[in-house]
Write a structure and sequence with these properties.
The chain is an alpha+beta fold. 36% of the residues lie in helices and 18% in strands. Strands 1, 2, 3, 4, 5, 6, 7 and 8 form an 8-stranded antiparallel β-sheet that branches. Strand 5 and strand 6 form a beta hairpin. The longest helix is centred in the last third of the chain and has 36 residues. The protein is elongated and about 125 Å long.
């Protein structure tokens, strides 16, 4: 598959990584790994993975990479004293999570005499994309490093610059390459590339994220019955716009083209067919039940008659009391 790269790239330790920095995490359990990989299945369909290195990662560092099954893990600048162990664990909803664990790692020429680095990588084997791997570096059991291994390099420095194009690894555009920034404009609607070139990278990223959010909400609204939603800011997507994210002018132009196509379709689809395929609006009283209204009307009439009877009784009682009070007292001689 194209995502595996050439043998020279694999030998250099290059791998396809999710472009956003996932930050430092003290620990990652099976539930967390399952949730992140489930979300990654959707994110990888809309975001191309970039070629890069995993080199001497910090404690707690987390990566999302594309690593086809049976492909060896790329050189990460750490020498491990033990072979990688593999075991399967049951996950939520009947899924199966495969865990690869490498213990007693150390960085050559770092001056640290102990091998305490632990690497775990998770992948969903049933019900997911087994080529998406979540890699976590943390602290594990420590053991002394043999002096003969302390200064033996694990890879050659400096690492060569990366100029390979990013690649979509999942979804409808799997295998599609995205040229790196500065590699020239890609195909797209006339005039959009020039406009995007006049924007800085942060403006392009923010605009593209907002457009992608609108497209996703439009797709969800059509699935729910065609109701057009409003577009509040999506805080999770905005938070993912990091300095390291790179969106090409081709991606920006395609997103703008899709958005404009949706707007034009909404405007002209009724005029083009003159309402032929537009359903008639419902009558204003269609939301009411006639039988239910008649029952309520009869109930109200009965209550009104009862109130009229009570009112007449009160008036009659009041009149009789007034007549008694007006009678003159009798005089006894």
């Amino acid at each position: 598959m194209a995502g595996m790269g050439t043998p020279q790239m694999q030998e250099a330790g290059l791998c396809l990584k999710y472009p956003t920095d996932l930050g430092l995490h003290a620990s990652v359990n099976l539930e967390t790994a399952f949730n992140m990989l489930s979300r990654a299945l959707q994110m990888s369909a809309t975001t191309p993975f970039h070629w890069g290195y995993i080199d001497q990662p910090k404690e707690g560092q987390l990566y999302l990479i594309f690593l086809p099954h049976q492909t060896p893990f790329p050189n990460d600048g750490i020498r491990y004293l033990e072979a990688e162990a593999k075991f399967a664990m049951p996950g939520p909803h009947g899924r199966e999570i495969e865990v690869h664990e490498s213990k007693h790692g150390f960085i050559p020429n770092s001056g640290d005499p102990n091998a305490w680095r632990l690497r775990r990588r998770f992948r969903i084997m049933k019900g997911g994309n087994a080529s998406l791997a979540l890699v976590h570096y943390t602290r594990g059991p420590s053991t002394p490093v043999m002096p003969s291994l302390m200064n033996q390099p694990i890879r050659t420095y400096p690492l060569r610059p990366v100029q390979e194009a990013a690649v979509f690894v999942n979804g409808d555009k799997v295998g599609v390459k995205v040229p790196p920034a500065g590699g020239g404009p890609g195909p797209g609607p006339m005039g959009m590339n020039n406009m995007a070139m006049g924007m800085n990278i942060h403006q392009q990223q923010a605009l593209l994220a907002a457009q992608n959010n609108k497209m996703e909400m439009l797709d969800r609204s059509r699935a729910m019955g065609g109701v057009r939603p409003s577009f509040p800011p999506h805080h999770e997507e905005i938070a993912e716009i990091e300095d390291g994210d790179i969106y090409t002018t081709r991606s920006l132009a395609m997103a703008r083209y899709r958005r404009n196509h949706e707007f034009m379709n909404d405007i002209f689809r009724h005029a083009a067919y003159r309402g032929k395929y537009t359903p008639d609006p419902p009558v204003s009283y269609s939301i009411f039940d006639k039988n239910e209204l008649e029952e309520k009307a009869q109930k109200l009439e009965k209550e009104l008659e009862a109130l009229k009877v009570k009112s007449a009784q009160r008036r009659e009682a009041k009149t009789s009391n007034a007549d008694v009070s007006m009678e003159a007292p009798s005089i006894v001689v």
